[in-house]
């Protein structure tokens, strides 16, 4: 189908050429009476051929110009996206629920994060990128000594004035509400794989479910106790970031050291994510610890939103 703009150009050129043809192919003979005009067949054929050649040439020029304009518009409206992009926007907010799998699989407490990932932060030709964000999560562990409770505390036995020592004899579970700030430097190795330098700081409000036992005496009672602690982790690792069809997979293992209650030690972190891109449904979590026997695990299910999605709400 001919382009509408080209059709208009055809009509204008035909009209212009017809007018020029009528003017050029008229021969006025002063010797004829009353200014009579004659047009020869050869002259008419010559001018018709010239007009057609002119139309074809101008049509080709107009088509070439239109192609350049359309290509420029298409490039401006749909800029090329980096091949390693997830298909999701670079800055996203996720809201959902954490899962408590220690006390039975159930949704418990709110999960939220803000994540900004710029794999080409310093230009399209650069392999260096930045990822940073904020996480609020809930993590669980069993029989943990990650955050030490006082082994001896003063207490009152059965409502009397007798002062006894109460020792925690059994820690049933430990639940931490975490607020984490993190920042990464990434270096692209290939479209789906990055080297990572990682740093984060965490505040955790820890809840202990335990049994205390009195000394002297043999009384015991359940207790729920809380403590606020801070730690920091630094390390290096890798980021696998791959979209296949409608699904995005991210795995980020980190090895390094940390500061726990102001004491340095070995630390590791593994973050994982499986996302359905079209509706941005996200299943993920984190494994974090000081040793392979002392670890905290978080699992969440969330819905992601881009900044553009949020702007449409206002």
Describe this structure in words.
About 11% of the residues have low confidence. The chain starts with a helix and ends with a helix. It folds into two domains: 74 residues; 221 residues, Lipocalin. The strands form two sheets. It has a ten-stranded antiparallel beta barrel. It is α+β, with helices and mostly antiparallel strands and 314 residues long. The protein is elongated, with a radius of gyration of 38 Å. The chain is built from three helices and 13 strands. The longest helix has 37 residues.
Attribute tags:
3 helices, 20% helix, 314 residues, alpha+beta, two-stranded antiparallel ribbon, single chain, 10-stranded antiparallel β-barrel, Lipocalin
Q: What spatial form do the alpha-carbon principal axes imply?
A: elongated
The CATH class of the largest domain is identified as: Mainly Beta
Give Rg in angstroms. 38 Å
Discrete helix count: 3
Question: Total domains, how many?
Answer: 2
- Ends distance: 43 Å
Structural class, from secondary structure content?
A: alpha+beta
Strand content: over 45%
Strand order of the largest sheet: 3-4-5-7-8-9-10-11-12-13
What is the CATH T-level topology of the largest domain?
Answer: Lipocalin
Mean pLDDT: 75
Helix content: 10-25%
Counting DSSP E segments of at least 2 residues, the number of strands comes to 13
Which regions are unreliable across 5 or more consecutive residues at pLDDT < 50?
Answer: 25-36, 75-88, 144-148, 150-154
The name of the CATH architecture of the largest domain is Beta Barrel
């Amino acid at each position: 189908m001919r382009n509408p703009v080209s059709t208009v150009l055809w009509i204008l050129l035909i009209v212009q050429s017809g007018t020029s043809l009528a003017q050029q192919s008229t021969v006025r003979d002063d010797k004829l009476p009353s200014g009579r005009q004659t047009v020869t067949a050869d002259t008419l054929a010559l001018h018709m051929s010239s007009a057609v050649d002119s139309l074809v040439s101008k049509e080709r020029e107009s088509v070439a110009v239109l192609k350049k304009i359309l290509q420029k518009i298409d490039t401006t409206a749909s800029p090329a996206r980096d091949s390693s992009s997830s298909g999701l926007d670079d800055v996203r907010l996720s809201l959902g629920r954490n899962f408590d799998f220690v006390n039975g699989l159930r949704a418990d407490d709110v999960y939220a994060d803000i994540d900004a990932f710029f794999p080409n932060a310093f230009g399209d030709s650069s392999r260096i990128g930045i990822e940073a964000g904020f996480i609020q999560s809930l993590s669980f562990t069993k029989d943990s000594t990650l955050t030490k409770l006082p082994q001896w505390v003063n207490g009152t036995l059965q409502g009397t004035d007798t002062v006894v020592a109460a020792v925690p004899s059994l820690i049933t579970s430990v639940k931490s509400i975490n607020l984490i700030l993190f920042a990464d430097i990434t270096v692209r190795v290939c479209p789906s794989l990055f080297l990572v330098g990682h740093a984060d700081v965490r505040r955790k409000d820890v809840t202990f479910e335990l049994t205390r036992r009195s000394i002297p005496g043999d009384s015991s009672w359940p207790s729920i106790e809380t403590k606020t602690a801070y730690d920091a982790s630094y390390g290096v690792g890798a980021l696998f970031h791959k979209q296949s069809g409608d699904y995005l997979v991210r795995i980020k293992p980190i090895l390094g050291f940390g500061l726990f209650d102001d004491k340095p030690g070995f630390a590791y972190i593994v973050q994982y994510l499986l996302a359905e891109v079209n509706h941005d449904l996200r299943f993920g979590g984190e494994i974090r610890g000081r040793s392979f026997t002392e670890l905290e695990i978080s699992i969440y299910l969330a819905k992601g939103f881009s900044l553009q999605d949020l702007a449409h709400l206002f």
